[in-house]
Structures are given as structure tokens and as C-alpha cells.
Specification:
CATH topology of the largest domain: Nucleotidyltransferase, domain 5
Helix content: 40-55%
CATH superfamily of the largest domain: conserved archaeal protein q6m145
Strand content: 15-25%
Radius of gyration: 20 Å
Number of helices: 14
Number of domains: 2
Distance between the termini: 14 Å
């Protein structure tokens, strides 16, 4: 009988779980605010998956500034998973493309730190086993731009530091990036609003009155997005006309798109070189993450329309629940393909 494996993606702002059989769940969790509660939060998350035979883990939460070093973060996260594993085997994905046991993960912490991009790219490679692929994964906080050659991750960087320097990791997402990032000296250098408010006001993302994980703690609705953006120009929701905040929102989104356009464009020469070594000349773009809508918009720009032969959507392939927890589903699937 095939094993049921529960994948976990432990981030700084969200916890995600998915089984190789297709069940998935995601919950917000501010790890940087309450690291001591991680084990409790994980226990609540995995309780509905009591039938899982083992746990496969990937992470990005070790970067949280509640941990003095990445080593401390990795060890804390691995220990928290072990505490709630109920004696089930635990494996941790590494950027070497293999799973490590918990002792190995703690020892070789830089190989498992922020390795969820590598797990996702390895999984995505199964859809494009021949040719050149660029995975564009836009999340709430960051964007991963991952070259894949004949189904295998072909990133030049392995760590966050190297990947940021090489343009493979871009610190912008569709939710948590402060609006002031794209406004410079024309607006308040304060955490009054995020890019999520710009996307909300422009109708790119749906409203959620129950979601209060916003800059001011008020609901994620267009009404309150207008209020948060109004403060970026020294106003308030009554004094500032909505036309002004709409204009501000367009400026934010245009600048975010330009940043990502430039980073993708900078990777095109490398993708052309990779094509020379590929087993097939076809060139794919795979889009994923909560910002998949933005990646789709980006790929309508030149020169991307002419460069890529085909675009694949993880949301369309996996459905909304699994795609929302894609790295967790990826490690669960990879572990099932690599039994203990």
C-alpha cells in the first residue's frame, strides 16, 4: 500500500501543508512575532492529516529576525516539526536535490535554509522534462525566477544572498511589500499600506472582509485599501479623493511590473545559452503563486511573447488549494517518488 506523505512549507508569514494524495491547507502564522508558538501552530495544522505516514519539510522561515542566525532558525523549525511528528519519520529537502534526515538538516543548515524554491522547481521540472523553462513564482513577499533545464533546476545561486545578487530572487510580492518601496520620495516613508492595497483597489485581487492582516489591521477591502493608500500622501479616506489613490495604485503596480519585467529580461540571455544544451528547443514559462495573475500580465510584454513557446499555470494544473500550498505539495510528491 502506498504511503501518505504530508509535505510542510514553513515560512515566516504562512504555514502550508499538502499530501501527495492531493489534500492541502494553508494558514497565516507570523513566525517572526511568536516563534515559541510554532510547534503549537504546526500541531493544529497537521492534526487533520493524522493518516500521514511521514513528514517532508521545506522552509523559508529561518530568515525571520526573531532568530539570531539562520542556523538557529533551521534548528528551531526542525525541532518544532520533530516535536509534533508523533514519531513519524521526518525528512527535509535540500538544495542538493535530496532529502536529509533531521540531524543532517541541522548540521548542513545552509542546504535546507530557504530551499522551497528548489523543491518547487524540481517538481515543476516533471511537467517540462525536455527543453528550457523559466518558473516565475510570485508569492506574498518574494518572487522566484528559476531557470530549469531538461526538468532540473539550473539556478546559478543556491542561497538567498547569491540568488538576490543574480536576480533569481526578487524581494517583492503581491501582498507584504510596503507600498513605499515603489513611491520613493513622492510619498510617506511609512508602513501605511502595501502593494496588496494597490492590487485590491485596482480589482486584481478579491476583497476579503475577514482578512485583517493589513498595514492598519483593518479589513482587506477596497474601501479600507483606499484609506491606507490615502495616508501614503498625507491624507485620509475622507480628505483624499479616490481618483488620487487609484492613480497611486496604478503607479505602484506599474513600478512593480517594471522591476519584474527587468529581472526576467535580464535572464533571457542565459535561457538562450541553456537552449544550446537542452534536449529539445522548446521554451516554457511556468507561472505560480498567489501573484500568478501578475506573472501572466508580465508574460504579455515583449520580448517574452516572442521568446516563450508555451505557458503553463500551476493553478490550472493543481487547482487552487494545492497551488496555494505548492512547495508543500512538491516536497510531498518528491518524497513519495523517493521512498525511505
Amino acid at each position: 500500500m502506498a504511503s501518505t506523505i504530508l509535505g510542510l512549507d514553513i515560512g515566516g508569514a504562512n504555514l502550508k501543508a499538502a499530501t501527495n494524495t492531493g489534500r492541502a491547507a494553508s494558514v497565516p502564522f507570523a513566525l517572526w512575532k511568536q516563534p515559541a508558538q510554532l510547534a503549537h501552530a504546526l500541531d493544529e495544522l497537521i492534526t487533520p492529516f493524522a493518516d500521514a505516514d511521514e513528514l517532508a519539510v521545506t522552509m523559508t522561515g529561518e530568515l525571520c529576525d526573531c532568530f539570531e542566525t539562520k542556523r538557529d532558525g533551521v534548528r528551531h523549525i526542525v525541532s518544532a516539526v520533530m516535536n509534533v511528528s508523533r514519531s513519524r519519520p521526518v525528512r527535509v529537502w535540500s538544495t542538493d536535490g535530496v532529502f536529509l534526515n533531521t540531524n543532517e538538516a541541522k548540521e548542513h543548515y545552509l542546504k535546507v535554509a530557504a530551499a522551497n524554491w528548489h523543491a518547487l522547481a524540481t517538481f515543476v521540472g516533471g511537467y517540462t522534462p525536455r527543453g528550457v523553462t523559466l518558473l516565475i513564482d510570485i508569492g506574498s513577499t518574494t518572487t522566484d525566477l528559476i531557470p530549469i533545464l531538461d526538468g532540473l533546476p539550473w539556478s546559478e545561486g543556491k542561497t538567498d544572498t547569491a540568488r538576490m545578487r543574480l536576480g533569481e530572487l526578487v524581494y517583492t510580492g503581491v501582498r507584504r511589500t510596503p507600498a513605499t518601496t515603489f513611491l520613493g520620495t513622492t510619498a510617506a516613508a511609512e508602513f501605511f499600506a502595501t502593494v496588496h492595497d494597490a492590487h485590491l483597489l485596482l480589482g486584481s485581487v478579491p476583497e476579503d472582509a475577514a482578512d485583517t492582516d493589513t498595514a492598519d489591521g483593518r479589513p482587506a477591502t477596497r474601501l479600507h485599501a483606499h484609506g491606507r493608500l490615502s495616508r501614503m500622501v498625507g491624507g485620509d479616506p475622507v480628505l483624499t479623493p479616490e481618483e488620487d489613490t487609484q492613480r497611486l495604485a496604478r503607479s505602484i503596480v506599474e513600478q512593480q511590473r517594471k522591476l519584474l519585467h527587468d529581472r526576467v529580461a535580464a535572464l533571457i540571455p542565459r535561457l538562450r545559452e541553456m537552449r544550446q544544451a537542452a534536449r529539445h528547443p522548446r521554451r516554457y514559462a511556468v507561472v505560480s503563486g498567489s501573484g500568478e495573475f501578475l506573472a501572466r500580465q508580465l508574460l504579455r510584454d515583449q520580448p517574452f511573447v516572442a521568446f516563450f513557446d508555451d505557458m503553463l499555470s500551476l493553478t490550472e494544473r493543481l487547482g487552487p488549494e494545492r497551488s496555494a500550498a505548492a512547495p508543500a505539495y512538491a516536497v510531498a510528491t518528491l518524497a513519495a517518488e523517493r521512498p525511505l
